[in-house]
Design brief:
single chain, DUF2553 domain-containing protein, mainly beta, Uncharacterised_YusG, two-stranded antiparallel ribbon
Length: about 80
């Protein structure tokens, strides 16, 4: 048996998380590196998203007081 080193492209599986002025890179749950962001960096977000103090927020519409007739239904849809 011969062991051979290979290079596998995992680019599409890498996830970045914004933390303390850098982007931490993860493959599945393992931290594999980081990208240092320069001072004064800016992040462009899509509609309904914003950044504040290195956190990313999504704007969503929710109901505060759902109507009672819809909250006590069983699994088959009977209320």
């Amino acid at each position: 048996m011969v062991l051979k080193q290979q290079k596998i492209d995992v680019t599409d599986r890498v996830v970045g998380k914004l933390k303390n002025g850098e982007i931490e890179l993860y493959l599945e749950n393992e931290k594999i590196g980081n990208i240092q962001l320069p001072n004064g960096y800016s992040i462009q977000m899509d509609h309904h998203f914003e950044t504040d103090e290195q956190k990313i927020f999504q704007h969503v519409t929710t109901t505060e007081h759902p109507q009672a007739r819809y909250t006590d239904c069983d699994e088959s849809g009977w209320c």
